[in-house]
Amino acid sequence: MSAYLTTINRLRIVRIQEVKRESPTVKTFTFHDRICSKARLGQFVMVWIPGVDEIPMSLSTMRSDGRCSITVAEVGEATKALHQRKPNELFGIRGPYGNSFTPANGSVMIVGGGTGLAPLVPLAEKLAELSTRISFVLGAKTRDELLFLQRIETVLSKADARVIATTEDGSYGSKGVATDPAREILKRETFDMIYTCGPEQMMYEMLVLAERYHTPLQASLERLMRCAIGLCGSCVLGKFMVCKDGPVFSDKQLREVKDEFGRFKLGRTGKKVSI
Ligand SMILES: Cc1cc2nc3c(=O)[nH]c(=O)nc-3n(C[C@H](O)[C@H](O)[C@H](O)COP(=O)(O)OP(=O)(O)OC[C@H]3O[C@@H](n4cnc5c(N)ncnc54)[C@H](O)[C@@H]3O)c2cc1C
Ligand code: FES
User: Fold this and answer.
1) C-alpha span between 275 and 259 (Å, rounded)
2) Distance 191 CA to ligand 1 centre (A)
3) What secondary structure does DSSP assign to 32-58, as a single string?
4) Is the pLDDT of residue 137 over 90?
5) Ligand 2 pocket check: which of 46, 55, 225 to mutate, most ligand atoms within 8 Å of Cβ?
6) Residue 172 gets which letter from DSSP?
């Protein structure tokens, strides 16, 4: 095993520096980790909550001074335990794991929903530096659940960019889901790349739109993960291991697993369950 793999696979205990409530169900935990601060865009860490579980989380911040963060939706036992953690308390991490987004030049569309926005925000920060033209579409059920809006607007204010927010109840931005404005914009404009992360149905719809408008796409997927290094098979998606071959997949790769993408995932017992 290379020295780099040995280093990232070692469990590190990190101290929580800050806890920020992003929405009624989502919190961001900031910590210092030199290794994660060098992670590539879209990579994830395995977060160990002692006595509870170890779960995958995207890095929502990776700063060169070592400051990093994860942004966590409370959905079950492990994320509930994490939500109870306070500044100065500890959790474990290993990683970063997986492949990464490839930043594109030209004109790009970013489409995200829920905590799927976590890896897309650092990506947008990088794209803004590359003077790429950015259309960022973000969606949530309600205004309260619309994540990172201020951070996205601040980052993109200096770039050639527009931000389009949607909420399902119409409490902010346009009423509907993120794919609605994305579909309308794609009818009129061409893009060099679409990036997406969020609910799998949303990403599936973006794949259909990308095919229709002959636009390449990169999507970051979620699956149940245990080892994160391609050994246990928990994260299988057709011929791919999402932890190792992903989490970022191209439109071409997703077409190869179209029977499963947007339809099935493996549950805790190893059986396929509908998405
Ligand atoms: C690469 C990657 C990056 C992720 N990044 C984030 C992130 O930035 N923020 C965030 O809040 N969550 C993220 N997740 C999802 C997160 O790992 C799960 O929500 C978490 O493991 C749930 O643990 P739990 O014990 O709280 O809930 P559980 O009791 O394990 O599950 C609660 C519900 O969530 C579903 N679920 C659990 N794990 C996953 C999963 N990996 N993919 C899809 N559905 C799942 C279960 O089927 C169940 O319906 C990511 C997942 C992956 C694979
Ligand atoms: S999580 Fe074990 S193979 Fe991917």
Assistant:
1) 12
2) 31
3) E-TTGGGPPTT-EEEEEETTTEEEEEE
4) yes
5) 225
6) S
Q: What's phi and psi for 118, nearest 5 deg?
A: -55, -50
Binned at pLDDT 50, 70 and 90, residue 105 comes out as: confident
pLDDT at position 195 over 70: yes
Question: How far from 25 is each of 46, 47, 79, 147, 176, CA to CA, in Å?
Answer: 20, 18, 10, 11, 21
* Token pair of 159 as six digits: 């770039």
**Residue found by looking up tokens 């770039």 in the block:** 159
For the whole model, what pTM was predicted?
Answer: 0.96
Residue from 73, 56, 61, 165 nearest 119 by CA: 61
Paired with 161 in beta bridges are 134
Distance CA 117, CA 198 (A): 7
The minimum-distance atom of ligand 1 relative to the CA of 119 is 8
Phi, psi of 204 (to 5 degrees): -65, -45
